TrEMBL record:
<dbReference type="InterPro" id="IPR036610">
    <property type="entry name" value="PEBP-like_sf"/>
</dbReference>
<protein>
    <submittedName>
        <fullName>Phosphatidylethanolamine-binding protein</fullName>
    </submittedName>
</protein>
<dbReference type="InterPro" id="IPR035810">
    <property type="entry name" value="PEBP_euk"/>
</dbReference>
Amino acid sequence: MRRERDPLVLGHVIGDVVDSFTRSTNLIVTYSEREVSSVVEIKPSQVVNQPRVDIGGDDLRVMVDPDAPSPNDPNLREYLHW
């Protein structure tokens, strides 16, 4: 994927939350059989239950939300979601 079209760049995750990096593993998040990506919008009612998270590789780290609770006030960006 071209860097300027990468959702992590467009969403200011890369450059604001984390430094630029080379992806080295797969991450698949599924809520009730629906796979999630960084461009999928999901209603709160669809994420009531814990998701299934499949991570390739041995490096398991914390998931962060770079604009939690909102883009204007991201004071919970390093919150552990599960």
